[in-house]
Amino acid sequence: MRPADLALLRTPGVPAVSPDGRMAVVAVGRPDLDADCYRGQLWAVPTDGSAPARPLTSGARDSAPAFSPDGRWLAYLSAADGGHPQLHVLPTAGGAPRRLTDAPLGAGAPVWSPDSRRLAFVARVPEAGRYGTAEGVPPEAEPPRLVTRLRHRVDDVGYTADRPSCVFVLDLPADPFDDTAELPQARQVTDGRGEDTDVAWSPDGRTLAFVSARHARADRDLVRDVWLVPVTGGEPRRVTRGRGECRLPAFDPAGAALYVTARPDLGPDGLDVAARGLTLCRVPVAGGPLQPVLDPREHHRGDDTPATVLAGGAALVGVERRGSVALLRVPLDGGTPETLVDGPFTVRGFGTGGGVVVATVAHDRSAGELVALTPGRRRLLTGFGSALGATGRLHRSTERTAVAPDGTRVHGWVTVPEGPGPHPVLLTVHGGPFTQYGWSLLDETQVYVSAGYAVVQCNPRGSSGYGEEHARAVVGAWGERDADDVLAFLDAALADPALDADRVGVHGGSYGGFLTALLLTRTDRFAAAVVERAVTDPVSFAGSSDIGWWYAAAYMGPDPVSPLAEAARIRTPTLVVHSEQDERCPVEQGRRLFVALQQRGVPSALLLFPGEGHELSRSGRPRHRLARFEHLLAWWDRWLPVEVQASRSRAPSADTTSRPSIRVQGKTATWPEPGTGSPPSIS
């Protein structure tokens, strides 16, 4: 995969399935490099495979499809170029879509009422005079913000206190086909005091469940409860009684219980969240504590479905397992769970209707395809990844297991370019740490391998997907067992003669950037490094990150190790990559590391992306993602070139010592000479 192949990437979302099970609709997103934006269309996919998938809408960015229970309507979100997403409805029998909302900051995903006549959704309500509500008042001219709470901003959103998230209900027009009829106004049902999210309807259509943090210590812990409110509005009633973090409530068919995705118990201070699994739980509608249906120590939910899906007396749940996400059918009566999808796959999301389950399933050479599941049969429905696959530039990963010094088995993958090698090696370290590498298409791995690098990646202790004991082994001890695991896996991989053990680089992002920087303070074995969107100083991180006020204490402990404090030990050429609007790991973390390296003459550079947050590499502007890849490849080409002289005893050739340059916005960026600390020059 080449950097420009981003334009071929097609990523399907979570499918909606018609009530009769005959049709699935899925949003498929793609980067548009020419327009520097993302496009999204809804595609209609017959679940019996009788016809190929076909485009259903042609909006700039269409997403979040939802069939009405009676099957007559498809609601979805659509956003014009540069605009906010708004609710639209499309008749399934044919006809033009109609926009239903004009929310100032956009509407959230639609949720149908049981009678198919109303929609609930969540939207942010801007304070008067802010966020474009006052004509002619740009953001820099708005009044000052008086911040009085710890929880007041979120990465990729910004400040939240002056635009709270609230629940709304919208009646469908009496005649949805009449474009001349006045649109009904959405009714605000909650006041947003607790950042209200994840709305769901009761079976009788009279009550809404939602998630909120409205308790006395809501600003000091991570507890989030399920609340009920009448559809007509009123004082919400708290359902969950305990110290859990709840998400995605769903009523059982009788309306007597709610099933939620939750961390059941965050401890007496409500902050014991580190490496605690999210799993399926039950709570009576009358109120009470969360009752786990699956063991959170072994079943951590890993799919992206924006709901807790109940059907046929069971719940559907995606569970992380050793780098995969398996799909389970969990009987609500306590029966044994049934595995519907397992193996080297990642179930991204799923929907169900008419006895058919449709899942979006990814693997190491596809960002996702739709698969229909019926008793005794699985049917592949789409080929969204075919254009990228047809390039011949996607590579299969090989599963490996190594043994750490204390005997712990470390699981991971090695992806090797074509040809005999030995190939230069890039060790990549994932973020989190409570997440996992696994069986899905990772564009970064593919780009590196296509450029000639063997990529080594593993799930050290701290990662999800291997049980709570494995995940919590690093709590309060970053840089110990996790570092041992990563290096043990690398050493085991380097035993393969196809990998060049003398030519190795390391690249990590977020927590992975922390571990990368820390390794650089302990060893000079790496030819070069990339430290991206990293935590480099836990002390300043605690006061500057949107989550730092709780995350640092929960994960790093009272006396955390600091790569920045040990930066004087670093001798490895290091590229520091950061986004200027990163609220998760603020840009000062990267800038301070860069300055420390420059002051000591370490070959280094600082690559900054304006207007981007923490998710740059996954969802940043397409041209920024392309530029990032070009810079990374130029950095590796400078310090770890793929082409080397036939004999290491010979002097380096002119090709291997030349200074590679890349084109950046019409100018040429050149990396510094070895042994200098000067930043890239622009000519």
Automatic annotation (TrEMBL):
Gene Ontology terms: biological process: proteolysis
GO MF annotation, one: aminopeptidase activity
Chain intervals with Polar residues compositional bias: 647-660
Lineage top rank: taxon: Bacteria
Domain (Peptidase S9 prolyl oligopeptidase catalytic) ranges: 443-640
Keywords: Aminopeptidase, Hydrolase, Protease, Serine protease
Region (Disordered): 647-683
Pfam families in the cross-refs: PD40 (PF07676), Peptidase_S9 (PF00326)
Listed name of the protein: Dipeptidyl aminopeptidase/acylaminoacyl peptidase
Annotated source species: Geodermatophilus normandii
